[in-house]
Structure prediction request, 308 residues.
Amino acid sequence: MAVNWTLQAEDLAFNRLDKLLAARLPELSRSRLQDLMRGGHIRLNGQAVKASAQVRVGDLLEVEIPAPQPVEVVAQDIALDVLFEDRDILILNKPTGLVVHPAAGNPDGTLVNALLHHCDDLSGVGGELRPGIVHRLDKDTSGVMVVAKSDNAHRRLSEAFAQRSLSKIYLAAISGQPKTREGRLENHITRHPVDRKRMCVSLDGSGKNAVTEWQQVALHQGCALIRCRLLTGRTHQIRVHMRECLGYPILGDPIYGNPKRDPISTGRLMLHAWKLALEHPISGQPLHFEAPIPAEFHPWTATLEAGA
Prediction:
């Protein structure tokens, strides 16, 4: 695939090449664009260029996007913390640092590789790279996840997520204390216009509706532990809402915060998918699961009442 265009006056709103490309090719991440530049696949007036290159009216910009290389997903013997399993679903406690499915930069060592080793009957509805995956957690987020082992379970779980008929409770330790103790955050979240790794609250109503109900449940050294109930499941929803709406990024967040400046050093992103309640996709039986709270949260949970 190749994209060629001659720059017009409106393109000069983005005087740097990287900013222009991010705006004109939103489907490509910033890291992907950087890889294309390093590989000589992005040319300005016939020459390979750097991200900081200045653009002018009349410049010829050429972007060549090579076809993706096929990826073979192999089974790998990676330990799983299984909370529940039957013939249709598997509930697990994902550790922080584990990527959910293979992608650029993470061809193996993922949860999918582990699942292929653990299960010999994993649902194929999610595709070759995402078998059984109905929803995902960020690499650095820990906690409870549900995986579909049968195609029928996969379809019904996907419908449950789309209809918001599941209950998802997270714990987030943030870098300060909100002015109020609880609330409801509702707005639209969209891709950041410049940094393609980030999401942001939309100022013009574009993007997708995002709703988080939150409550402060504990305090440690001026940093609050927040219980979040997700009513939607947008990318980075809690991370964006904590930073942009409550005014404090999650401790250890390298994208929306600065871990080196955190008032408490935690060594990880302090976001944990704590509880998940759903109906079994086949039997309809109500199910409730809780992922053990990681040790890094114990300074807060030591004062957290049971059943909070």
Q: What stands out?
A: The helical segments are 17-24, 30-38, 111-118, 151-162, 237-246, 298-301. The mean pLDDT is 88. The radius of gyration is 22 Å.
